[in-house]
Amino acid sequence: MNGLIMDYPLTTTTILKYAKSAFPHKKLISYLPNGDRHEYTYYELEKRSCQLANALKNKLGINKGDMVGTFAWNHYQHVELYYGIPGIGAVCHTINIRLSSQQTEFIINHSEDKVIFVDATLVPLLEKIAPKLETVEKYIIINAPENFSTSLLNTLYYEDLIEEQLDTLEWPILNENDACGMCYTSGTTGMPKGVLYSHRSTYLHAMTILSPNAGNYSNDDVILLIVPQFHVMAWGFPYMCLLTGSDMVMPSLHLQPEAIVRILEREKITKANGVPSIWMGVYEEMKKNPPKEKLALEEYLVGGSALSASLIENFENNFGIRGVQAWGMTETSPLGTASRLQKKHKDLSKKEQIKIRAKQGIEFPGIEMRIVGDNGKIAPRDGKTMGELQVKGAWVIKSYFKTNNRDNFTDDGWFRTGDVSTIDTDGYMEITDRTKDLIKSGGEWISSVALESALMAHPKIKEAAVIAIPDKKWSERPLAAIVLADISKPISDDELKEFLSSDFANYQIPDNYVTLNLVPKTSVGKFDKKEIRRLYAEGKLN
Amino acid sequence: MNGLIMDYPLTTTTILKYAKSAFPHKKLISYLPNGDRHEYTYYELEKRSCQLANALKNKLGINKGDMVGTFAWNHYQHVELYYGIPGIGAVCHTINIRLSSQQTEFIINHSEDKVIFVDATLVPLLEKIAPKLETVEKYIIINAPENFSTSLLNTLYYEDLIEEQLDTLEWPILNENDACGMCYTSGTTGMPKGVLYSHRSTYLHAMTILSPNAGNYSNDDVILLIVPQFHVMAWGFPYMCLLTGSDMVMPSLHLQPEAIVRILEREKITKANGVPSIWMGVYEEMKKNPPKEKLALEEYLVGGSALSASLIENFENNFGIRGVQAWGMTETSPLGTASRLQKKHKDLSKKEQIKIRAKQGIEFPGIEMRIVGDNGKIAPRDGKTMGELQVKGAWVIKSYFKTNNRDNFTDDGWFRTGDVSTIDTDGYMEITDRTKDLIKSGGEWISSVALESALMAHPKIKEAAVIAIPDKKWSERPLAAIVLADISKPISDDELKEFLSSDFANYQIPDNYVTLNLVPKTSVGKFDKKEIRRLYAEGKLN
User: Fold this and answer.
1) Mean predicted lDDT score pLDDT of chain B
2) Which of A257, A485, B193, B380 fits as disulfide partner to B400, beta carbons 3.0 to 4.6 Å?
3) What range defines the domain where residue B173 resides?
């Protein structure tokens, strides 16, 4: 029997119209590439998104299902693109500006972008590959300075495009299962793969991440979006902020620690997102130049890589700012879990509490997770048994764009994350490693992530990455690549082994340590272990 | 272009399976009708819901689309019914135990319930009408004491029904648009009307009310469900608690103020729901017998009637417990708005703050609202212009069960609430009256709700209801019916007029006051103005 409830599709337009109606005065604040501070309201955001949508239809000939690329920083125009493009049924394809030219070229041709909206500061990256782009008919330049010039053909300025367009629109009623956005994974092997989000998945993900068990965002928050809009839709925050009526602050290219701290101070930011390396930098900057007044910042949400126990502890002890670990992937929109303490943990020692908070945490409603062991069986939730983390849910992909490859999916329809994890009896998931980075020594697993966390807790160590190296006897052994906190204060191998011995079994402790100036990172700031392995193989580490 | 996201229907079974997986140890605690305290986990809830679902299919022949009635208090068996019945595609029809025999008979015959699950203490109410029930094949008795006997035919005990059934089930994959639950409005005019909820609307409503702008519930909360499960699905809380992983506490028939305070103390309740009259009683009980230790209770969510500014203030000043005003109707699942302060209000006086908090508040995402004036035009959001509140959204009905009557719907598909409201520039909606109770005196509107709130703030007054009475000169005039706080301390008409004169225009102040022992209430605890008008018309008020 059918329910008698109104048909009400969950779309990005639903979100935009909601914010205009319920929170017309709330603000979208942008620190533009040229340093200017720009501010307007959600009411104006809707108006300008209408203008953009009208221009896409009337001036650029964009139709339902067309791909429209963006190659841009976080700012209000990019938010207008997040709503204007899917609002007329087209797909907002955010292109990662940090990929190689070869990958960027591949992505744009593969997705068949008809138009690309590009920040003036990023135009040089596209100029290099423009002759090889097969489908792009026009480039729309955002934030162009005076006397801007480019070798790109068929360009138009963003403000010229939308001016004179009506700022009203009878937004079309869309099918919530249609695509609204696309990102490519920054895959460490092979070419990037396309991930297409639907309106429905975008809405449900945004609605879920604002809940108290997840990010806990309300209309009283001022939220800084450090995660780039070209990276998994900025974790859905440009949608979430409108649903919750919080102010949204966009830093564009001002991502240096000093710049971030200045924005945190000036805008009285209460919550923010970002990968751990950003927060590491912010922490060090604040230690060096402590803010004059206590920041309004209560909490930062971290994903992408593991938040180390030492960073959680340092930020909290020194500045009273809470780090919250979340987990996700491009293929999961991205957020699937977060780790917060519960009342039952309140009598634990601080150290034990932080150990729980450094886990990836409990799945959100709408997401299911399981651990599957080497034997193909679902592992018990005992906090010990490791296996591959597999997920399914309302914002998890069922396939990649334009490919029938099913390597990442199980026969019964779960997505294979490639992460090796445990789940404890309270439901907290912990990633112990990536399948491909996992160290198996003498038939026993060694968690490189656990070793890295432990090493980074040493006062003399700034960063540490652990990889597997071939070993005749044990088949694999861990190698630790470390970055010193102070280059004038080295640390001996024995000192490190001694330091690790309290928390690890003998066989788990690396025999070999090398010192780096910097841990190589991927385009999204994760430790690039492939690159470290390559350096090792080429004899360049010692 | 289609998104590439997994198909993942939003159903009550999704919710049940989620809690079993993510929060297996969280508790459902019941104070049973006989006074026993019962406790088990969400893991066990899923197990027993499987047993129930298997019994419904195997022993009672319930099929997809069948109506299954419940006539019961809040307790774990009733929660099992909330999941077990819709889990196999049938509809959980919760029958309001407080209606007249005539209405109850009408509802059961109209809905065509095949089976009714009934609490032993409520059996006498059904015995009276059983001979007239046309479709009921069986009565399942819950919480039967020893030596229970009844004149009902075809009865079975709940525990006998489910025992020996498997506690596992491959829950069927349901269409999220199928019905999962049904309630009848306790309509003040005519016979009750049926409202059918879908799985999707139930999920989205539950997911939304846990957000920080709404109820703000996390896995750290212990939530007392005072709103009966037979009243608009207990405001969706039995679904919400599982989504958020909070403990759920059920009082069954222990709804007297002393009993509620005892449960608040013993279970360390952090949040609760309920209509204002319940909280008025709890407040008075706590004043009389102050709890020895400060309660864990942080907040109570109120709906159904307006929460008076004086109750908000008294509870907060005396006990540090926050009242949160929400608004909704059976036809809106029910919750559509809530009122919380924002940063911009922090410099207002306490009195001004409470004035905002006593409004019905801002609509939730998924809900749209508008005010339509007598001229049929959408009224501005200026906090002054009154009109009928109309809503639409993802958990608002598009029609009533088995009727084509469109009186409550506009031509463009909005639901007409029958409430007269304003919306201010910050988006806070305030109900000024019911259309049918609205007082129009000399061409000017008078808000009976505002008068009632003001009168109830007088220390000598416990309750006040204001109705319109016919007037030759002004067409209508307000009449205030008051209940004294202390019968030995009467209050004069002049004293009342003087008291109101600071906040109201002369024409708005009632000329006439009558004293009652008790304000008549509807079955769901609202002031029954129809009854007051009837008493007045019959000359029984003076």
Assistant:
1) 93
2) B193
3) 12-20+36-197
